[in-house]
Specification:
The chain is an alpha/beta fold and 616 residues long. Helices cover 36% and strands 21% of the residues. It is built from 20 helices and 26 strands. The strands form five sheets. It has an eight-stranded antiparallel beta sheet with strand order 3-2-4-1-10-9-11-14, with helices on one face. Strand 12 and strand 13 form a beta hairpin. Helix 4 crosses helix 5. The chain is globular, with a radius of gyration of 26 Å. Bound molecules: 2-deoxy-2-amino glucitol-6-phosphate. The site of 2-deoxy-2-amino glucitol-6-phosphate has 15 residues, from helix 9.
Length: 616
């Protein structure tokens, strides 16, 4: 899950490539590199670390040219070294290639090539692909653009795995070639210039007219134009999309981190997730994108929700919502398990895959597996035109706007909002009365104001967070709708502060977890004043009995019992059980954020992580 950017046109390529890479840094930040074409030569610069490190090194040793490719890496094969940084070259050194994805059969191919005398500089899978293209081109005996493209086709037929790639060759100034299978690649159309990128955010400052490449497509770009064909050599139709995203959407504004900006955007993102989808007349939700009639929705006997990481936690809240509001049996499946599991599924099973990026490899594979088995498979995505969105049988866009911070925040609350709308729709087709439907709608309409009140608690939560920032272990507990929120709160803290945090269903304490409780291990209880409040209270008592510090998230006006028992209490606006996960998760986002800031962690680019996991 790296990021690649390519440029060919009339302007100096390097500044455009570096700015684009900076926008894609959330996809991987182990190392970065650039290759440009200048006077028939390829010049390469690559550095370990961030784009700014590469920018500094280029500042000392500039390279020019109006054609170039670039890469920011999330290491999959080979350690984080300068040699393993991209671009990688072929045997002649006249072809350079950047790659996002994994060549699964690279090892056997490398052995073959070494037997032919090829020598490799890096440990990467990518360098093998560069050598394969170079070999095929050299063997063609022709030094034409067509021969180079055919050489790429030949090489791509030899590899298995995923790729989004860009190539330049010293003999073809003013030319870039791109190809994709499994990893996203978008072509940006400019005036006298063209772009390639893993994500539109890298090029939206230059153009908003783009073409999303499909799997097995090759794009050949010059400053004057581009062609798209398949790896079989046939022409390929394409659509030009004008993206809504603006430059401002992908900048931090006055916030010190994208994560903090995105936490503060949740009044708008949750409002946008509901916009035009609350049908007051019918007291239900309107989700035209599902492409299903009420009769088809009525025939659904089982729902499967699948995703990874935070998306899986949102799915777990959705399971509670659909079963509580619509009484439809619902299960959550990790996408990485679902894709290999032989889950017995009846024909009336409806599958939803959830993905903010719409590019997560395991979730994409779960989608394809579900469709292969003939199940209607719908997507809940944020990234318009992403691969999952395009391959689903329909679905719901989250409209949360770009999410750049690696730690998912507003995408979680948007996914829970969308799942609550789906539960309302399925419920109204079954057991939910019109008055119950109207009550749910008015509760949802009251949500943005309540979110705004939680956002105003930031400094109060920040001061509590700072008090616990030195803890090495933290436990998160919740019941029912808030059990998944305990998991999500722990994930947020883990991924940005590296504290060993874990989440549990509160009652599981007595069955082992309580062994971890001591004075140094804080427990965070999500305990709104709902049907299981007093059960949570007893669990808090058990922790206090062992001297464990407790922070509780409770309900405004009903926090007395908690205040008497707990070390710190955060009181949130009252809400029905199916909406408390949205309010509580925002409080936990602030909690994790301020602990990470206190510890001096790089909140937007936590170690070893990346925003979109496009490899298995
Ligand atoms: C969450 O903060 C993480 N970034 C990660 O767990 C993420 O939720 C997961 O990789 C799924 O991503 P997706 O929603 O883009 O598919």
């Amino acid at each position: 899950m790296c990021g690649i950017v390519g440029y060919v046109g009339h302007a100096e390529a390097v500044p455009i490539l570096l700015d684009g890479l900076k926008r894609l840094e959330y996809r991987g930040y182990d190392s970065a590199g650039v290759a440009t074409l200048e006077e028939g030569c390829i010049s390469i610069r690559k550095e370990i670390g961030r784009i700014d490190d590469l920018r500094r090194s280029i500042g000392k040793n500039p390279l020019g040219g109006t054609t170039g490719i670039s890469h920011t890496r999330w290491a999959t094969h080979g350690k984080v070294t300068q040699k393993n940084a991209h671009p990688h070259c072929d045997r002649s050194g006249r072809l350079a290639l950047v790659h996002n994805g994994v060549i699964e059969n690279y090892s056997s191919l490398r052995t073959q090539l070494e037997e032919e005398g090829h020598q490799f500089i890096s440990q990467t899978d990518t360098e093998v692909l560069a050598h394969l293209v170079g070999r095929a081109f050299d063997r063609s005996g022709e030094r034409t653009q067509g021969a180079l493209v055919s050489a790429l086709r030949e090489a791509l037929h030899l590899v298995s795995g995923t790729y989004g790639i860009a190539i330049v060759h010293a003999e073809f100034p003013g030319l870039i070639i791109g190809a994709r299978r499994g990893s996203p690649l978008v072509l940006g159309i400019g005036k006298g210039e063209n772009f390639l990128a893993s994500d539109v955010s890298a090029i939206v400052g230059h153009t908003r007219d783009v073409v999303y490449l499909n799997d097995y497509e090759i794009a050949v770009l010059t400053g004057e134009g581009f062609t798209i064909s398949t790896i079989e050599g046939n022409g390929a139709d394409y659509n030009v999309t004008t993206v809504e995203m603006t430059d401002e959407d992908v900048s931090k504004g006055h916030h010190s981190h994208f994560m903090l900006k995105e936490i503060h955007e949740q009044v708008k993102s949750v409002t946008d997730a509901m916009r035009g989808r609350l049908a007051h007349e019918e007291a239900t939700a309107k989700l035209g994108g599902l492409n299903m009639t009420n009769a088809e929705l009525r025939s659904v006997e089982r729902v499967i929700l699948s995703g990874c990481g935070t998306a899986f936690h949102a799915a777990m809240v959705g399971e509670y919502a659909i079963e509580t509001l619509a009484q439809v049996p619902t299960e959550c499946e990790f996408a990485s398990e679902f894709r290999y599991r032989n889950l017995p599924m009846t024909k009336d099973t409806l599958v939803f895959v959830l993905s903010q990026s719409g590019e997560t490899a395991d979730t994409l594979a779960a989608l394809r597996e579900s469709k292969r088995k003939g199940h209607r498979t719908l997507g809940i995505c944020n990234n318009v035109a992403s691969t999952i969105a395009r391959e689903s049988d329909g679905g719901v866009y989250m409209h949360a706007g770009p999410e750049i911070g690696v730690a998912a925040t507003k995408s979680f609350t948007s996914q829970v909002t969308v799942l609550t709308l789906i539960a309302l729709l399925l419920g109204r087709i079954r057991n939910l009365s019109s008055s119950e439907g109207s009550r749910i709608i008015s509760e949802m309409e009251g949500l943005p104001a309540k979110i705004d009140r939680v956002l105003k608690l930031e400094q109060e939560i920040a001061s509590i967070a700072r008090r616990y920032a030195q803890a090495k272990v933290m436990l998160f507990m919740g019941r029912q709708f808030n059990y998944p929120v305990a998991l999500e709160g722990a994930l947020k803290l883990k991924e940005i502060s590296y504290i060993a945090a874990s989440g549990y269903a509160s009652a599981e304490l007595k069955h082992g977890v309580i062994a971890l409780v001591n004075e140094e291990t804080p427990s965070i209880f999500i305990a709104p004043h709902d049907a299981v409040f007093h059960k949570n209270l007893s669990n808090i008592e058990e922790v206090k009995a062992r001297g464990g510090p407790v922070i509780a998230i409770g309900t405004e006006g009903k926090g007395q019992e908690l205040s008497l028992l707990c070390d710190d209490v955060i009181l949130l606006p009252e809400a029905p059980e199916y909406l408390t996960p949205i309010l509580a998760s925002i409080a936990l986002q602030f909690f994790a954020y301020h602990i990470a800031v206190t510890l001096g962690c790089d909140v937007d680019k936590p170690r070893n992580l990346a925003k979109s996991v496009t490899v298995e």
